[in-house]
Design brief:
By secondary structure, the chain is an alpha+beta fold. The chain has a domain of about 100 residues. The protein is about 20% helix and about 35% strand. It is built from three helices and eight strands, in the order ββαββββααββ. α1 runs antiparallel to α2.
Length: about 170
């Protein structure tokens, strides 16, 4: 198989970079963001985005993570207690797992149970978390807010602060 670049043959071994997920345009991020802004009980939300300085020999790659949500019920709660893995005022989903499916080699989810005040709000918050943390909008987020940033979104504006990390 001949490899070329714009019709010019390439010789030698090509070391492929990271297998990044397909990127999506900003117009696909907008409805997820708007759903959060339209919820009157959500006061603010945000995430951290940065490229690590050192990653144990692995390539250092930009990512966004740590999605959090503050509702009207979370007046004096620290940001790290607002992350989506077990948010008190948004709720959580617990999954009961069964045996491993021999075809997929994955455990089978038998049932899921939502615990919290509003399942629709929970689903909107999880959609935001997935949009930010799944990597499909990394170019959009990096272009809009830069690297090493802590993002806070409120109805009246977006605050970007330098995120100092190790």
């Amino acid at each position: 198989m001949t490899t070329n670049f714009l019709g010019i043959p390439i010789q030698g071994d090509i070391t492929r970079g990271a297998n990044r997920v397909d990127q999506k345009p900003i117009d696909e991020f907008q409805p997820v963001l708007q759903a959060m802004l339209d919820d009157p009980t959500i006061v603010e939300f945000g995430w951290r985005q940065y490229t690590p300085y050192f990653n144990d020999g692995e390539p250092c790659e930009f990512s966004a993570q740590g999605t959090w949500v503050r509702t009207t019920a979370d007046e004096d709660v620290d940001e790290y207690q607002l992350e989506m893995w077990g948010h008190a005022s948004v709720g959580k989903v617990t999954t009961e797992w069964g045996d491993v499916d021999p075809e997929t080699n994955r455990r089978i989810a038998l049932s899921t149970t939502y615990e919290g005040p509003d399942r629709a709000r929970y689903d909107r918050c999880k959609a935001l978390e997935a949009a930010i943390e799944a990597g499909h909008f990394e170019h959009v987020l990096l272009d809009a807010f830069g690297d090493h940033a802590n993002i806070t979104v409120r109805r009246d504006g977006i605050e970007v602060e330098f995120y100092d990390h190790d």
